[in-house]
Amino acid sequence: MVSQEPSIVPEHSLDRDCTTLSRHVLQQLQSFSPDAQDLSAIMNRIALAAKLIARRLSRAGLVAGALGFTGEVNVQGESVKKMDVYANDVFISVFKQSGLVCRLASEEMDDPYYIPENCPIGRYTLLYDPIDGSSNVDINLNVGSIFSIRQQEGEDLDGKAQDLLQDGHKQIAAGYVLYGPATVLVYSIGRGVHSFILDPSLGEFILSQENIRIPERGPVYSTNEGNFWQWDEAIRDYTRYVHRHEGYTARYSGALVGDFHRILLQGGVFLYPGTMKKPEGKLRLLYETAPLAFLMEQAGGGLVRGRKTSWTPFPIASMPVPP
Q1: Burial class (CB in 10 A: 0-12, 13-18, 19+), 292
Q2: Cα–Cα distance between 93 and 81 in angstroms, integer?
Q3: Whole-model pTM?
Q4: Which helix (H) or strand (E) holds 106?
Q5: Is the pLDDT of residue 307 over 50?
Q6: Cβ contacts of residue 305 below 8 Å, gap of 6+?
Q7: What contacts 115, CB < 8 A, 6 or more positions away?
Q8: Which of 145, 151, 109 is nearest to 126 (CA)?
Q9: Greater confidence, 115 or 186?
């Protein structure tokens, strides 16, 4: 009797053909110039931070002092989680001795963090959200990290870092890490969007999807409908439209990275409109919206700010559109 078991791809074939993150960056740039090597090294440092954070998250329930709040409030007016502090410190630690980055700017810090010994040679700035969706940590749901790499402009002699307030198109690279069943790193340097999965046995991020394109139409809309009655009437009308028509599905996890990743792969729209209490919205332009918009545009989607100040910027792609 002939066995009908499905064929299994030998494990050694993956080991032979795999493309690592650092190799992929150099291939994308088609160069081994100092600038290309710097960008590859920065991405390697981001990957190291992601590995450390992923390891901490996987053991958070077993490590004393890993979960819960610190009792402090950050510059955004939000209560700080212990994991926020840990992840922020990890990014600082992995870049401190790198010689690559002069400044780090995070939504968990009131001011940019300068690394004076790097500044003479490290002409880059890393902006990041160390843990996006940290309210999910204590209940073991997915969270993420968001990052953006920018070129430092000018000498920044007064320490005010005004050059950080650049247009989003000046980003050199952007991406995010999703900590879920697998740890996934997605990035772009303006040449498409590419996804990598962390192989714990190798300790490497391995290319899984190249040149991701968001579907032209998508069934998912992601928004916090608990705020429905605080939204502008136009946003409420749009929400009523998707309620009335078949084929649209609400998916909202409370972690922007997780919701964004679903939409990137399946198509749809993410909205975070302003409310009566927060008319400007809650998404942070430098640390969240600009990096994700950069990725979405590279994947064939786009971003809309809205015509009224009560609308916050939100990534948009293959969204359900009223006829």
Answers
A1: buried
A2: 19
A3: 0.85
A4: strand 101-106
A5: no
A6: 311, 312, 313
A7: 95, 96, 101, 102, 103, 104, 122
A8: 151
A9: 186
